[in-house]
Design brief:
By secondary structure, this protein is an alpha+beta fold. Helix content is 50%, strand content 22%. The strands form four sheets. Strands 1-2-5 form a three-stranded antiparallel beta sheet. Helix 3 crosses helix 7.
């Protein structure tokens, strides 16, 4: 069967793949467009599996809210270049929309959610890998429902959701912005695990004992430093970024508000990045490695 330009165009529109890839698939299937699509899907799956082990530490944080509900998702790519591409952005926006709509229980459930066009999120992810030539990972997501929801997105690298009671929309957003800037690990001191406190206490005691001061003085020194440590790692104990003369706790009390929880995502945090020469990386992409 003759492979016409119209047939190649139709396959491109249906798959989003390149012209030469479409033509090759049509030749292999003697012009059967449905068989060509299946062949390309299988090839895309193989490419995705091959790239699955490659480190993806760039990407985007995307947030979507609807009323008192919100979803936040981190999706990673291998390079910052790909994270700025429209195909990647469209996929990220599509996934966060599906997360908000479907309210999946976990990551596996999100990946199994219907994405549209007869495919689930995971199939769409693998198709994207085949198209862009980089590993793409839907790393994590979180859902939140709150009487007073705080949402803040710093560019596309940091996103925050805050579950607050009382206060108002502006305060909730200010607190979310504070979380983005100050990186608290916990909401308040009661949430800090005892092993973290004991570990810090042991370090402080060892440091204080080297000073040669008497035990009662050391005890007071350590007590004060533990209090300072808890203030640094908890949201309510930190100085408010927009007014460092007051803590977040005082700000909340002044507005009759309480923060129940928060979620903070930053692109690539905790992922061990592989250092490579950028020119070599581009060459690898060109060579299809």
């Amino acid at each position: 069967m003759a492979i016409t330009a119209a047939l190649v165009k139709e396959l491109r529109e249906r798959t989003g793949a390149g012209m030469m890839e479409c033509k090759k698939a049509l030749v292999e299937t003697d012009g059967d467009i449905e068989a060509a699509i299946e062949t390309m899907r299988k090839a895309g799956q193989a490419k995705a599996e091959k790239k699955a082990g490659r480190v993806a530490a760039e990407g985007l944080i995307v947030v979507q809210a609807d009323g008192n509900k919100a979803a936040i998702v981190e999706i990673n790519s291998e390079t910052d270049f790909v994270s700025k591409a429209d195909d990647f952005k469209d996929f990220c926006n599509g996934v966060v929309a599906k997360a908000l709509e479907a309210q999946p229980a976990d990551l596996d459930a999100l990946l199994s959610t219907d994405y549209g066009n007869g495919k689930i999120v995971e199939e769409t992810r693998k198709d994207l890998i085949a198209k862009i030539g980089e590993n793409v990972s839907v790393r994590r997501f979180s859902l939140m429902e709150s009487a007073q929801l705080g949402v803040y997105l710093h560019g596309s690298r940091i996103g925050v959701l805050v579950d607050m009671e009382g206060g108002n929309e502006e305060l909730a957003r200010d607190v979310a912005m504070h979380v983005a800037a100050s990186r608290p690990q916990f909401t308040n001191a009661d949430e800090v695990p005892s092993d973290i406190v004991e570990k810090e206490k042991a370090i402080l005691i060892a440091q204080a004992e080297d000073s040669g001061k008497p035990p009662e003085i050391i005890e007071k020194m350590v007590g004060g430093r533990i209090k300072k440590f808890l203030g640094e790692i908890t949201l309510v104990g930190q100085p408010f970024v927009k007014d460092p003369d007051q803590t977040v706790e005082k700000l909340l009390k002044a507005n009759g508000a309480t923060v129940k929880s928060f979620v903070r995502f930053e692109v690539g945090e905790g992922i061990e990045k592989k250092s490579e020469n950028f020119a070599e990386e581009v060459m690898k992409q060109v060579q299809g490695s």
